[in-house]
Amino acid sequence: MRVAFLSDVHGNALALDACLAHVRSVGADAVYFLGDAVGYLPAAREVLDRLAAEGIPCQQGNHERMLLTPAEVPPDRETAYRLGAARARLDDTHLERVAGWPVRRELTVGRRSFLLVHGSPAAPLDGYVYPDTDLAPFTDLPYDAVVMGHTHRPFVRPSGGTVFVNAGSVGLPRDRGDSAAFALYDSEADRFETVRVPLDVPAILSAYGDRIADAVRACLLRR
């Protein structure tokens, strides 16, 4: 069985389409989404509709939480997040669907137990686990694997009998802006890998134009 884990689309429907096409091409049997469908880029409605149409189990990230509770959005970040604009394009059905997403998920694949969170095991919505984060505080967890997102920086690291995986970002990679990422688990090989998918950044910038902040544009152009 092959399972794909996607995270951090951030309103980039073009990137989501590219990654879903790649997921199909590698023969994934199941797909899970780890949060942050919205924020930064303007196609939140299209992203949410696509995830629903594909029947992908989803969970909340910190941007879903801020979408549902606008008072939690830091005023100095809204220029980049643009969650108000996203909320204006969504209807009650979208918001109710997102409100029903869990903040964590336990999963069994073959004989392996997984914990899926957007942030970290200690802070499921907004904890940060980077490629060089000390994993010692998490090594007593009763899971074979912990799969996360949030940092937009993918990695696969075993530690203390648990494999820690960051799926990276579909819509706004922070290491290389033209290379989306997702994680793929092969149960027969009992192995995770990071899959990179080329993004057509000029097409993305042409489609979304001035509806994204300069900092977001710079991130997409990062090499």
- Kindly identify the CATH topology: Purple Acid Phosphatase, chain A, domain 2
Taken from the alpha-carbon principal axes, the silhouette is: globular
How many domains? The number is 1
Q: Which structural category do the helix and sheet elements fall into? A: alpha/beta
Q: What is the CATH level 1 assignment?
A: Alpha Beta
Mean pLDDT: 97
Q: Using the CA coordinates, give the radius of gyration.
A: 16 Å
* Known CATH architecture: 4-Layer Sandwich
Strand content: 15-25%
List SSEs in N-to-C order.
EHEHHHHHEEEEEEEHH
Biggest pleated-sheet summary: 5 strands, mixed
Strand order of the largest sheet: 3-4-5-7-6
Termini separation: 34 Å
Q: For this structure, what is the CATH homologous superfamily?
A: Metallo-dependent phosphatases
Runs in which pLDDT lies below 50 for 5 or more consecutive residues are none
Count of DSSP-assigned helices? 8
Total count of strands: 9
Molecular structure report:
The protein is of the alpha/beta class and 223 residues long. The chain has one domain: Purple Acid Phosphatase, chain A, domain 2 (4-Layer Sandwich), CATH 3.60.21.10. The protein has 8 helices and 9 strands. It has helices spanning 13-25, 44-53, 62-68, 78-81, 83-89, 92-99, 201-208, 214-220; strands at 2-6, 30-33, 104-109, 112-117, 145-148, 155-159, 162-166, 179-186, 191-198. The strands form 2 sheets. A 5-stranded mixed sheet has the order 3-4-5-7-6, with no helix packed on it. A hairpin with a 4-residue loop joins strand 8 (179-186) and strand 9. The termini are far apart. The model has no long low-confidence stretch (mean pLDDT 97).
